[in-house]
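Summary for the funding panel

The consortium committed to producing paired sequence-structure records for every protein in the target list. Below we show the first two records in order, beginning with the earlier of the two.
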Amino acid sequence: MSRLKKLVGTVIVLGVAGAVAGWALSAPVRLDAQAVARLGPGDAARGKRIFYAGGCTSCHSRPGAEGDARLQLAGGLELKTPFGTFVPPNISQDQKDGIGAWSEQDFANAMLKGVSPSGEHFYPAFPYASYARMKPADIADLYAFMKTLPAVAGKAPDHRLSFPFSIRRGIGLWKLLYLSPEPVIALPDGAPDKVLAGRYLVEGPGHCGECHTPRDFAGGIEKGEWLAGAVAAEGSGVVPNITPDGKSIKDWSEADIANYLETGFTPDFDSVGGSMVEVQRNMAQLTPDDRAAIAAYLKAVPPRPNGYPARKPGS
């Protein structure tokens, strides 16, 4: 009996120790003083470019918004995933319902660390795992531009998640596995500046890998299948493979890709469709050099076979 008591006691001690360690490891981590110092004063004119590269309107404007209404970032779009339904929040300049009361440092912690001003983890449906690769100066510029946008009253609905996904603290452990500022693709020494610039835009603010890359059981990106295409997060349809082996753009030139991002037309004069419509709208706001850089990077990434199961004929 004493041996059983010792065994039970050991299990309890180990369980408590594991819980304490898990609690400590899952704690939100904010930017250090050195990173905060690199933010500097932002420039709204430069921030407009980052705003469109980041695709903020795609998720945070009201569903179906057109024209200037796309800059009213009230949130409300529903993102249905295997983990539950995520609803992008109001990120307008409303002091109560949006982020109008956030400081530049609050904003940078959200973008680079996925941590709210109150010290909670944001869910990675907000693609900070990509934004973590952004330059602090670009974050400051984006913040400055966001301050020029209208305030819109009204909170977006809450996420609808079941246990255990409703426990935000566990996201801290997810971050230990998947949150890194390092580039996904290691380019060779002497890689052209255009390709390097494209890597930054695609892997960072553009967060293209968030949709175009398969995910593992925990929802983390499979970096070994970078941009190889994936089952759509909503569970129906696929997001295409955009590596050099991907059928969708395999035969496209850099100029073809850049033109598609600007006009929405393929080399065969088909037009952009689906969720890519919003993305292309944003890409059209970038400079020709930006779109050329994105195209050069997409031609330089390692070719991969499709990262999603083959579809049955007619599906």
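The next record, for a separate protein in the list, is shown here:
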Amino acid sequence: MIGIDIGTTGAKGIALSEEGRVLASATESYPLSTPQPGWSEQDPELWWTAAQRLLDVLPDGPLGLSGQMHGLVVLDEHGEVLRPAILWNDQRTAAECLEIERRVGLERLIELTGNRALTGFTAPKLLWLRTHEPETYARIRHILLPKDYVRYRLTGELTIDAADASGTLLFDVARRRWSDEVCDALEIPLEWLPTAHESTEVATAGDQAAAALGVGIVAPGRVSVVLGTSGVVFAVLPEYAPDAEARVHVFCHAVPATWHAMGVMLSAAGSLAWLRDVVGAEYGALDEEASRWPPGVEGLLFAPYLAGERTPHADPLARGAFTGLSVRHDRGALARAVLEGVAFGLRDSLELLRALGVRAEVGRVSGGGARSELWLKIVASVLQLPLERTESEEGSAYGAALLAGVRAGVFADAADAVERCVRVRDRIDPEWDYEDAYARFRHLYPTLKEL
């Protein structure tokens, strides 16, 4: 079973056995274009070339795809790409987001799509093209997301899965189909949109849903905790239940008839990478020095908003801060405060998920930050949740390969794939009491915002 993940800076491919063992893996890098400040674009041909190279070096087998969400690929009547794709991290569409919420109505938009209009989503990009590149817009006949463009080049089919379609802001997430109401309000022709299927039917999913599947998040009870550059807390919902204020994303899951809620903080392991660069120390040294300090770091707190924040504050102007510094605090104290501040940010997301009815019993942790034993102890303690690491660290590509197995009939369904392939490597239990420190952290953002 082959899984390919079309990421932002490169593509990753893996081959799995029917027992979930990684038989082969390969990566292909490609550049990101930033033609103006705040813009982020990519030539879809880069994805196709990378996918071809991966398929050339991986063994043959049924193929599943995952990829970066929200990106806009526009095709003409001949199926040719009209312009570079506008990606998930592009920030040019603030005005269009306001227009969408005005046209549809914020409350109705959240009710239908599970989200408010954010600059990363696909629909605002279409409105931007209509205003700023009308000649290109007039030639659009088809819209695809990144990994669906690769599938189109492979098969000639214009399709998408419900999980990835949920991130376009054009999808009726409760009914798992395109929203006539939203498309009508925004004057987006329904015939431009690819046919939507369940992920298990077409072996594709957005990267977050695929990654969650890859660590075994297929039903309520477990949550996925991602300590990547950004941080994610992801939980399966038994029914569609949007947050009234849209502080967390609610999308269709890659598992049919289920949904997921997801809190996203923008600077998780990215915060530690920033500190590493600023103080000129390697991760191992920071980890060791941080371990010398007690929980709470004698009152030192870190607000992890180095690049703004999405959950729970949805504030692109939020900024980071250390507070409570004393002459006793050294480099290790700063490091421990960063580890704890990120954990507190993840707790904010978990609390919002709990308010939607999520009952978390255990967390499945992944991402580069999960290599730090100290950080995992801190996160488990702050979340008051035991954390498990799985044997595979292949992320979204692993989930895509499992979807390929389901579609090919290797597995009966997604739950069967997880049961047979996803294995727990170790478990980290909560060790420290962080309730007082977390209560103080909750005051940081509202206090600092006025400054």
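Regarding this second record: The chain has a mean pLDDT of 95. The CA atoms of residues 16 and 69 lie 24 Å apart.
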